[in-house]
Each structure stands twice: as structure tokens, then as C-alpha cells.
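pasting for ref. prot 1 ->
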Amino acid sequence: MNARMRSLLVTLLRGVVTLLLLLYVASRVDLAQTLTDFRRAAWWGPTGAGLLMLVNIGLQWLRWHLLVRAGDLELSPSRSLIVLLAGYPLGLITPGRIGELGRGAVVSGTHDSVSVAGLTLLDHAYGLVGAVGVAWAGMIISGYGTAWQLAVLFFFYVAIVYVALHPNRLVRWLKTLAPYLPAFIRERTEESAGRFAQGWRLAGRRVALAAIGVSILQITTVVVQFTICYLAVGSFSSLIKVVGAWAVVLGAKHFLPVTVGDVGVREGLAVAIFADRALSTEAALVAALMIYVLNVLIPAGAGALVLARWRQDR
């Protein structure tokens, strides 16, 4: 199977998964009530979440710029923001947001695009570490999950932090595993692992710890965004349960980048987890969609404008 056919097959599979998730969401909520909740949402909900969107993007930029400076790339703060924004639309239309590796395309020829790709993978890895950490904290404060589930997640979190701080170990493990993988997966895995390790060598452990701290703040900001939107719908449930449930959604979502346009996973997880916690699934769906617009579509739109400007200037 050639690369074009594989790409087409992956796109079709993502379309099927997206459709199935949307059907699941539709079957688990009262759509009429969801529309009513959306209409009655207080103005301060999306307004407050919109202001926090700027904080969210700012923290993502801070993490990225820390890596850029550590990698000794000659990018000014404004230029590194442009590079970050350019990755949003590319990530939105590709599996696992792998298109964000295209950040390097908008870097001038004096820079190493491979280094940018490595730092981008590192940026995503630290985002994952932050999301899982906040999810674990959310489970504890909301009483979600059993003791053994919390213990398993804790040891998993320790493992991914270890990998984030010791990427060369990951590269060696992947090289050991590579002979047992299909050829096209092996090639991508080895390439990604090499770029990840290169990015880490550029950044170093001190910057890694700072980036993880910024990631935790960034994911916490998204939790606050969602909580504001949820409360704005008029669903004044237990605040602790709401915060904990959405933290779990964010943590789980990072492991399921399988849909078209990043649609469906966030919403499906929100409906499932909020139903399990006896919270309003309709309010959760409305708030999740607001977050999707604010944190995904609007930044992707800004990034598309950046890419269009970049193409004109070439």
C-alpha cells in the first residue's frame, strides 16, 4: 500500500470514528434540552472563557518560547508566536495533530526546520504531561475512580514524566520494538523518536521542568474555562465534581487524537464522564462545544490567516 492510499485510508477511518462519536453523543443527550441550555447561557460564561482563551494561548506561547530559546533558534517573541499560531490549522486537519510539525515551514531559511520539528514534538509531550497531571489531581479532589485506578494513573504519570526527562531511553526502547512493527509505522516511529530526542537535547532538563510547570497552568486554565461555561448554562452542580470530571476529560482526550477536525472525542468523553458522575450531560455538551470554538476553531482561524500572509510574502 503506497503512502497516498494509506493517507486516504486513515482519513476515511477518522471520518467513521468521528461519525460514530457524534452518534453516541446524540444518543446520550436530549438535543432539545441542549439547544435550550445553549440559548439560555449567561453572557459572562463565553465572555470570561474567551478572555481566558488569551491566557491559554499565552501560556502555550510561553512554553513554546522557552523551548525556542533553549534551542538557540533566532526567533523573537513575536515571531515565535507567529510560528505557534501557524501550527494550529495544520494540526487541526491532520491525524494526531501531526501537522503541527509544519511549524518549521514558516521559519526562515537560516533555521533548521528539523530542530523546530523536534521542539514541536517536545512541546506536545510536555502538554501531555501537564494534562495527565491535572487529570490525576482532578480525580483525587473529586473522588473519581478507585484507589487502584488512582495508583495505576500515578505510576503511569511518573513513567511519562521520566520519559519526558530521559528521551534517550525512549529512543532505545523504540529501536528494540521497531523490528516487530509494520514498515510504515516503524519509519514514522523512528523519525519521531529521533526528532523528540533532538529537541530535548536542545532544550535540556531545566527547561523541561519549567515547560511542564507551564503546561500544568495551561491545562488548569482550560479547566477554569469549562467550569465558567458550565455554570453559565445554569447548571449549578457540585463545583468539585464538575472540575474533576472535566480534568479527566482533558487527560483522556490527549490519548485519542483520532477524529476529523478534533471533533467528537472531547464531546463524547464529556457526555460519558458527566453521565457517570450524575451531572448534566446537556450542560457539559454545551460547555464542551464552547471550549471547542474558543480553544480550537478561533486559534486555527488566526493561524490560517498567518499561513495565508506567509504564503503571500514568499
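and prot 2 ->
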Amino acid sequence: MKFLSGMNPALRNIIICVATFITVATLCIAALILSANVDPDTIINSIRRDALALEQRGDYPIVISQQREDALISFAMPKYRYDGFTDGIMLLQSIPNRNLNALENAVRAPYHAIGDGTPGGDGTGGISPTQALLEYTADPLNSEQNRSYVLYWHGYVVPLRILLSFMSPTNIITLNIVVFLLLAILVFEAFRRTGGWTYGIGFILALLVTFAWITPMGFQFYTAFLLAFLATLVLWWLLQSKHGRRLIMPFFLALGMLTAFFDFLTTPLLTFLLPLVLYILWITKKGRSASIPSLIAKGAAWLVGYAGFWAMKWVMTAIVYSAVYANSEFGYAIAQRSGSADGGLMYRFNAIYNNLYQLLSLAPDGSIFPGPFFMIFFVSLAALAMLWWMLVKRSNTSMTQAKHALPMLLVATGPYVWYFVLAQHSTFHSWMTYRLQIASVLALIFFVLLSVDWAQFGKKETVASEAVSVEEKTSSKARLKGESQPKLDDKSKDGDFNV
């Protein structure tokens, strides 16, 4: 790497990014292909041991349920559930197909599905993946893996296959919870060391508000949060040295690729936004403002990694199947998930409405329509903005400090851009995609903390009270002195006081 030291920085970054893309792509594809060689019987036996627990869990278990006929608010809402339906598909895909070679298993991601019209086809199919999982593991030799899912890499099957070789699904979920808590503590510490205790507490508050703490109770939601936490910790480590800071661009590129590999299209943008919040906080605490072009460049690196590596799955599908099949599947998926096949501009704004409603309402049952909801939302936002401005003026904060915090607002808008672009997916799955707004909540908390000079808050009142106290002491001394001297007339007394 010595020859890169004297090279133009821009050219050096391009070379490192290209090398990063090739390396990460090779490792991910190799891991996926190699994992297909895990013995299917071992995985089936591990899942079979948990048959009763999986059946009781069902497709959409509710984490918080408080349904009573006389209750004003029902908590048995989709926002409080996790996706056992997709977890069932993920577990089914973790079982390699005996009749396919390792490459075909990696590309096709076959699984067993049941229900009318289920045989054949691609994508999500069947009436209940949980029941299909129980049926297949009970009699795998007489059950057919009749569907495939070529649209994603399904890289999560790599750790699942390894863990299912010696652990049951319930034990893996327990491990998920433990790892989640440990990583959350470490991320809290990263924010605390970068900004202070209030920033660490702000992170915990954002986790609680968005119900992110339920994500490790399954498999689908967990991958994006796991990657986001790990990425934040790695970025914090890179920021500690000059050499590490040079690797931030390839870091975001690799992060986008890993997100495309492991995530099952839940909240993938979180893996970019959460580390970005830490990066902006680190820059701002150094007394500088994060450059908007620099932030956009990092976002472009993440997007190139995410979209570029996903496109490689398109190419591999064309090689294994055919170009016509790959084009039809991937082309339809892009049109469907973006919403271009379902509606216009209002449809995209409704996607934002659905996710905001899920975040802000305890019982998001659709009782408040988009028009009134947005009116209430923007009036409340204007009131909060006025309150923030009063805090800035009351604390006598310099405009330079306030401007340094502005990039946080850019991060806060990120989830809503995602909802706008992927409107169909964000509308249909708003009960889970709303958790992407943890980045918005965290960025807004940090914006308020950074843009107000809290050390100066109320300082004017303190100075004024001290001045009054000194004045009172002076007057008291003057009165005591006057008692031991002859009385002066009123004019002389006033004149003496004014001096």
C-alpha cells in the first residue's frame, strides 16, 4: 500500500473503493455458496426440536397486547408485533436443497410453501410459512421446496445455517437479545464518549420511542439493527486515528454492500444514517461543521455499495436462469416496491403519513386521515421550532454554533426520502418500516443538544441576581454606617447615594 501514499487523494479513494467492492463481493458470495454445504438434516433437527414453540408463536406474534372491550386504546396493533411470517421463510431458506448444487442454492434461495396456487413461482408465497416450516421439517423427504426467492441475496442464511447446526431457533432468539443489549450498551458508550452523557441517553430514548427494543425477538428486523450498531462502533474506532479517517469512504461502500447482502428489505437505510449521526456529532464536537457535499459523497458511497451489489444478484440470476427471467423479476420488483405501478404523488405522501402515524400514535388505527394528520403535525412542528428558537435566544447561542448543528436535520429527513422513493413497500409494511425513524428521532435530539449553548443558558439571570445581591450588601453597609454618624438632610443623602 506504500505506492498509494503519494497518490492524488481522489484517485487513491477510487482505487481503495474498487478494491473494497471486489473483496467484499467475493467474500460474501463465497460465504453464501459455502454455507449451502451445511448438512440439511442437522438444521432440520434443530428446527424440529422447537416445533411446539414455533407453532405457538405463529406468523405475527404481538409483543404488547392489551385488548379489552372497555379499553379506550387497544395496544394489539401491528406496530407492536414482529414478523413470524417472514421469519418462517428465512428458516425455510436456511435449509439447503439437496437436489441443487451450492451455486444454485445461493442464487435461487429455494423454500417450501403451502396453499392454493403455491407450487412454482418466485417471491413470497403460501398461506403460512410457519405451518409450511412445521410440515417440511416433519417430513422433508416427502415435501418439496417448490418456490424460490431470487430478488435478494438472503445473506442472513449464512449465520443461520451455522447457528442452527447446534442451536434451536428459540435459543438463537435468546442470543439475539443478549447481543442486542450488549451492542446497545457499546453504542451508548460511543455516543457518550463522543458527545457526553446526554447524547448517550438520547440514543436510549430513541430506542424506546421507536420500539426498536423488540427487533431481536425475531430474525427479520434484527439484521438491519445489528449491522447499524456494529457499523457505528467500527466508525467510532476509525475516527480515533488519522489513518482510520482515510478509510471512511470505503467503509460506507462496504457497509452498503453488507446491508444488501444481509438485510431482507426492512430498514436498510438505518445502517447508513445511524453511523452518520455519530460522524456529524464527532465533527461538530471538534468545533467544525460537517460539509454537506462530504455527507452526500458518503451517502453516494453507501448507495453505490447497496444498489451495486444488489444488481450483481440480478446478473447471477441471469446466468443461472436466463436474462429474460431476471429482467422480468427484478424489473417488476423495482416498479412494485417503489410504487410507480400503484399510484402517483399522493401515494408517496401517504407512505410518509403511514410511517409517521405508526411512530406518533399509540394506536395507529387510521382514525386520523392524512389531511388533518399533516395539519396537526406541521402546526406542532412549528410550535416546537418556536420553542427551540426561544431556547437559542435565551441561552444567547451564537449563530455559528446553531449552523454547525444543521447537518443533523439532513439526517432527520433521510427516512422520509426513503419512504417517498420506496412508497409501496413503505406503505404496506409501515408497521415495521416506521422504526427507520429512530434516525430522525436521534438526529433531532442531537440537533437540539448541539444548537443550544446550554452552558450559557440562564447566565444573564445569574449575573443580574449577583448584581442585585451586591447592591443590597452595599446599601446595608451604608445604612449601618449612617446610624453611627450625624443625620444628613434628604438632598445630601440622595447625592451621596448617587455617587
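The mean pLDDT is 84.
Residues 459-498 form one domain.
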